[in-house]
Amino acid sequence: MTGLQDRLTPEQIEAFGREMDAIRQRIVADLGQDDVDYIMNVIRTQRGLEVAGRALLFAGFFPPAWLAGVGALSLAKILDNMEIGHNVMHGQYDWTRIPELSSQKFEWDTMAPAENWRHSHNYIHHTFTNVLDKDRDIGYGILRIDPAQKWHPYYLGNPVYATVLAFIFQWGVMLHDLEFDRIVRGERKWSDPELKQMRARMAPKAVKQVGKDYVLFPLLTGPLAPLTFLGNATANLTRNLWAFAIIFCGHFPSDVESFTEEETENESRGQWYLRQILGSANITGGPLFHILSGNLSHQIEHHLFPDIPARRYPQIAAEVRAICEKYGLPYNTGPLRKQLWSVAKKIVKFALPPKPQRSAPEPDTLARDKVSRAA
């Protein structure tokens, strides 16, 4: 870890912060009908894909119809999760005063209750991005993903845990809020009132999601119920794997840094911006790729400006990168395959115990070795 204070001088940090503030102010002042039209079009597209997907599964006895239905439903779930749900619940469209776009009222088509997620993600993660022992998204309480995390034999299962998490990602996001790791360590009690409230929200949401995808819609297709069940499961799996890949590639590739609480104590606005740059990574791709990722392919810009409509991130990415180059700061970006491979290597690397540090020989030992070799 490199200290924030070692990157730039106090004067540079202040100037850097002003430049980032200027980008934010310019975008906020420019928000308008185009932004509303964009997100409403995405919502209409998502609903159309879901209706089409559900309808095609009624003809699931015909393999092409089943495949098309699963594809449409998968895309609908990805759009709902990434470009709509994640971004609306960040408050990116609260300025519109449209009830449908209210961060406090929106509920998405996934297991995690919106209210729980807003606290763990919007507040904890985005306030303490990559701060060890504060940002619980570092390893999600089950993975060792940073060298500063103390190794334990449990972490030998890192690759297995990551694989399982990818397949059941929506369940992992929901259960993440319960902080099982802290309960196991005795740092939190299962009976805590806050956890009781979270569990009270989780149960009905999980019942609703399971009932909708695995009971109601399969039963509606009568004799095709097993095929509809399988189609819904496949769509959910596709969304899980996609969301896992995008999120992990934005947070855990090589060269993404973490920080201690001491480093971020009394942090200025400029230092906060700097931490977001150093603790994030982008993924390159085309316009459709960015939409399907919820524009979290621009994770750097998202961490800098989490409440600005994500459709604006591609517009400012080049400017943010130029500012980083101006101050000699890294701008971590690359194609999905590169970032995903980087993440996979870290998961395997940190599953293993750290190599013991070899201490340097004492001066007198070096001298004896030199005499011995000469003889």
Secondary-structure blueprint of this entry?
Blueprint: H1 10-30, H2 33-57, H3 63-89, H4 114-127, H5 158-167, H6 169-176, H7 180-184, H8 193-220, H9 225-251, H10 269-278, H11 287-292, H12 299-304, H13 313-326, H14 336-349, H15 363-374
Helix pairs in contact: 1-10, 2-3, 3-9, 8-9, 9-14
Short description:
The protein is mainly alpha-helical and 375 residues long.
3D architecture notes:
With 375 residues, the protein is mainly alpha-helical. The chain has one domain. The protein is 61% helix and 0% strand. The chain has 15 helices and no strands. The chain has helices at 10-30, 33-57, 63-89, 114-127, 158-167, 169-176, 180-184, 193-220, 225-251, 269-278, 287-292, 299-304, 313-326, 336-349, 363-374. Helix 9 packs across helix 14. The radius of gyration is 24 Å and the shape is globular. The two termini are 44 Å apart. The model is unreliable at 370-375 (pLDDT under 50). Residues 353-375 are annotated as: Disordered. This is Fatty acid desaturase. Residues 64-333 form the Fatty acid desaturase domain.
